[in-house]
Amino acid sequence: MSKQNQSRLSLSLGLVFFISLLLLSMEVRSFEPGVIEGYTGYDAAKVGSATCTMCHSDQVPESLLTHVSLIDNNPGNEEYGYGCEGCHGPGGNHNGDPAGILNPSKLSSEIITDICSRCHSDLNSFNTDEWVVSEHYFADVSCTDCHSGHTDNQWFLVNSDRLELCYTCHAEKRSEFSMRSHHPVNEGQVGCDSCHNVHSGTYEGQLIKDGDELCFTCHIDKQGPFAYDHPVSMAAGGDGCQTCHFAHGSNSDDLLRLPQRLCLQCHTDRGPSTHFAGTCWSAGCHVEIHGSNTDPLFFN
Ligand code: HEC
Ligand code: HEC
Ligand code: HEC
Ligand code: HEC
Ligand code: HEC
Ligand code: HEC
Ligand code: HEC
Ligand code: HEC
Ligand code: HEC
User: Fold this and answer.
1) Is residue 161 a part of any domain in this protein?
2) DSSP states of 31-67 as a string?
3) Ligand 2 pocket residues where CB is under 6 Å
4) Which residue of 67, 71, 191, 248 has the fewest CB atoms within a 10 Å radius of its CB?
5) DSSP-assigned beta bridge partners for residue 126
6) What letter does residue 252 receive in the DSSP assignment?
C-alpha cells in the first residue's frame, strides 16, 4: 500500500471514528457543552454515589428497590457505584454548586428523554424510537411526569396507583368509565395499559394494536370470518368495531354509540315502522349482528 493510500485509509478510519463519536454524543446530547445553559458538569469526573450521600444524607436510598439501589447494588451493572450520576450527570464540578449538576425537575422533556434513554432505549413496553413519535412526547409530557427518580414502587411511578396516575391528567376518562356500560377498568378487570402503551406512537391514540386487531385480542369470537359477514366489521373490509361501539363507556347498553337509530345510519330504508317493537337487535331478530354462520339476515 502506498503512503498516500495509507494516509487516506487512516483519514477515512478517523472519519468513521469521528462520526461514531458524533452519533454516540447525539444520543446523549444533555452531556454536551452548550445544550443546557450554564451547566458545567458535562466534562467533570465522577465521584460515586457514596460521595453524593455524604452531603445529601436525605437521599440515602430507603430500600433496595429504589432505582439507584438497583444500579449500585449490582456489580454487574456498568454504572455500579455511580448510580446517582447516571441521572444527575458527573458530580466532579458540583460540590454544592447547582451549575455543576443536572436537576431533572428543571429540564425539558427532550433532555430527560436523553438521560433516561442512555440506559433504557428498549425495555419491554418502552422504546425510545416509539416514544419520540407518541402524543405524550409531542405534548411535552416527560418521563418524570409519571416516573419519579427516587420512589421504590414497581416502575418507580410518581403515583403507585396507575389508574389514578392517568386520571390526574385525563379527568374526563373517569366519567367515561363510570357510564352505564363501560370496559371494567375501575373494577380492575382491564387496565388502560390493556389497550394503550403510553410510551408509543406506533398506532394512533397510543394504542397497542391497530383498529379492530385491538378488540380481537379479547373478543376473538367477533373476528370471523363468518359464512355471512356484516361488512361493517374490519374483518369483512368495513369500518370496524368503533362504527357502532365506544371504546371507553356509553350510556347505552353494550357500549353502543346510539341506543335506537344505530342501524338506520346506514340502512336508511328500514324505518322503525317496518319493524317490531324494540331495536333491530333486541326485538329478537338480527341478534347475530356481528356475523352469522347460519343466516344471511343475522337471525338466530
Ligand atoms: C459537598 C457537598 C455536596 C456533595 C458532595 C454533593 N452535593 Fe448536591 N448539593 C449540595 C448543596 C449544598 C446543594 C444545594 C445547592 C443550592 O440549592 O444552592 C446541592 C444541590 C444538588 C441538586 C439540586 C441542584 C439544583 O439545580 O437545584 C442535585 C440534583 C444534587 N445536589 C445532586 C447531587 C449528586 C448526584 C451528587 C453526587 C454526584 C451531589 N449532589 C454531591 C451539596 C453537595
Ligand atoms: C444509569 C442507568 C440508568 C438510568 C440513567 C436510568 N435507569 Fe431506569 N433502570 C436502570 C436499571 C439498572 C433498572 C433495573 C432493570 C434493568 O436491569 O434494566 C432500571 C429500571 C427501570 C424501570 C423498570 C422498573 C420496574 O419495576 O420494572 C423503569 C420504569 C425505569 N428504569 C425508568 C427510568 C426513567 C424514567 C429514567 C430517567 C429519569 C431512568 N430509568 C434512568 C438503570 C437506569
Ligand atoms: C404518561 C405516563 C408515563 C410517561 C410520560 C412515561 N412512562 Fe414509563 N411507564 C408508565 C407506566 C404506567 C408504566 C408501567 C407499565 C405500563 O403501564 O406500560 C411504565 C413503564 C416503564 C418502563 C418499564 C417497561 C416495562 O414494561 O417493564 C420503562 C423502562 C419506562 N416506563 C421508561 C420510561 C421513560 C424512559 C420515559 C420517558 C422517555 C417514560 N417511561 C415516560 C408511565 C409513563
Ligand atoms: C433514575 C434517575 C435518578 C437517580 C438514579 C437518582 N436521582 Fe435524584 N432525582 C431524579 C429526579 C427525576 C429528580 C426530580 C424529582 C423526582 O422526580 O423525584 C431528582 C431529584 C433529586 C434531588 C432534589 C433536587 C431538588 O429539586 O430539590 C437531589 C438532591 C437528588 N435527586 C440527589 C440524588 C442522589 C444523591 C442520588 C443517588 C443516591 C440520586 N439523586 C439518584 C432522578 C434520579
Ligand atoms: C402529566 C399529565 C399526564 C399523565 C399523568 C398522563 N397523560 Fe396521557 N396525555 C397527556 C397529554 C397532555 C396528552 C396530549 C393531549 C391529549 O390528547 O389529551 C396525552 C395523551 C394521551 C393519549 C393519546 C390521546 C390522543 O389524542 O391520541 C392517551 C391514549 C393517553 N394520554 C393515555 C394515558 C394513560 C393511559 C395514562 C396513565 C398511565 C396517561 N395518559 C397519563 C397528559 C398526561
Ligand atoms: C378496551 C380498550 C381501551 C381501554 C381499556 C382504554 N382505552 Fe383509551 N382508547 C381506546 C380506543 C380504541 C381509543 C380511540 C383511539 C383513536 O382512534 O383515536 C382510545 C382513546 C383514548 C384517548 C384519546 C381520545 C379520547 O377519547 O380522548 C385517551 C386520552 C385515552 N383513550 C385514555 C385512556 C385512559 C386514561 C384509559 C384508562 C383509564 C383508557 N384510555 C382505557 C381504547 C381503550
Ligand atoms: C384487554 C381485553 C379487552 C380488549 C382489548 C377489548 N375488550 Fe371489550 N371487554 C373486555 C371485558 C373484560 C369486558 C367485560 C366482559 C364482561 O363483563 O363479561 C368487555 C366488554 C365489552 C363490551 C360489552 C360491554 C357491556 O356493557 O356489556 C363491548 C361492546 C366491547 N367490550 C367492545 C370492545 C371493543 C369495540 C373493543 C376494541 C376497541 C374492545 N372491546 C377491546 C375486554 C376487552
Ligand atoms: C353494526 C354495528 C356493530 C358493529 C360494527 C359491531 N358491533 Fe358489537 N354489538 C352491536 C350490537 C347491536 C350489540 C348488542 C347486541 C348483542 O349483544 O349482540 C353488540 C354487542 C357486542 C358485545 C357484547 C355482547 C357480546 O356479544 O359479547 C361485544 C363484546 C361486541 N359487540 C364487540 C364487538 C367487536 C369486537 C366488534 C368489531 C369486530 C363489534 N362489536 C362490531 C353492534 C355492532
Ligand atoms: C356503517 C354502516 C352500517 C351500520 C351502522 C349497520 N349496517 Fe347492516 N349492513 C351494512 C352493509 C354495507 C351491509 C351489506 C349489504 C348492503 O350493501 O346493504 C349490511 C348488511 C346487513 C344485513 C344483511 C341484509 C342486507 O341488507 O344485505 C342486515 C340484516 C343488517 N345489515 C342489519 C343491520 C343491523 C340490525 C344494524 C344495527 C345493529 C346494522 N345493520 C348496522 C352497513 C351497516
Assistant:
1) yes
2) GSTTTSTT---TTPPP--HHHHHHH-GGGS-SSTTSH
3) 67, 70-71, 77, 79, 86-87, 115-116, 118-120, 123, 143-144, 147, 149, 154-156
4) 191
5) 123
6) S
What's the average pLDDT block by block, 10 residues per block, for the chain (300 residues)? 44 46 46 84 94 96 93 94 96 96 94 94 96 97 97 96 98 97 98 98 95 93 90 74 96 94 87 69 88 91
Q: Closest by alpha carbon to 196, among 209, 186, 211? A: 209
User: Structural domain of residue 276, as residue ranges?
Assistant: 209-300
Query: What is the H or E stretch that residue 182 is in?
Result: strand 181-182
Which sign, positive or negative, has the C-alpha torsion 173, 178, 183, 188? positive
| Ligand 4 binding pocket includes 83 (Cβ within 6 Å) | yes
Q: Is 69 in contact with 63 (CB distance < 8 Å)?
A: yes
Do 200 and 263 reside in the same domain of the chain? no
Contact 165, 174 (CB under 8 A): no
Distance CA 187, CA 189 (A): 6
As for how many domains the chain has, the answer is 2
Look at residues 172, 188, 208 and tell me which one is the last residue of a structural domain.
Answer: 208
Shared-domain flag, residues 236 and 201: no
Residue linked to cell 343466516: 295
